[in-house]
Amino acid sequence: MPGIEITPVISNDKNIVRSYGNGGFVIGTEHFYSGSQVILPTRVYEWSATSASQITIDSLSHILQQTESIDILVIGFGISYVIAPHDLITKFRKSGIVIEWMTTGAACRTFNLLLGEDRRVAAAIIAV
Fold first, then answer.
1. In what order do the strands lie in the sheet with 37-39?
2. Whole-structure pTM value
3. Which of 26, 81, 92, 128 could hold 97 in an S-S bridge, CB 3.0 to 4.6 Å?
4. Residue 106 contacts residue 100 (beta carbons within 8 Å)
């Protein structure tokens, strides 16, 4: 089980990140997901990115197809800060989706906060 607990005040029917670490995440109703993940309002699936350099427009192209249900994409790039790729930010902005670029821990907390506010948010988070 992941080691860093997050205590949200969000209903259990949402895909909240309950904890992260040890190579994965506990999302929703206490299910452990190993590896990096993309969290959408209605589903969670494995994401192939394992480092910030692998976060590309192509690796997130399926999210660009959901502009009618997502306004914000929170990206957790790991634990060491790197600058967000300009082309990624520009492409998503032109599609109407704002990118929030931060460490994985901050991304988990930010995603939960925005989800709790009923914002139209998704997350792409690299496992730590």
1. 44-46, 37-39, 121-125, 72-76, 98-102
2. 0.89
3. 92
4. no
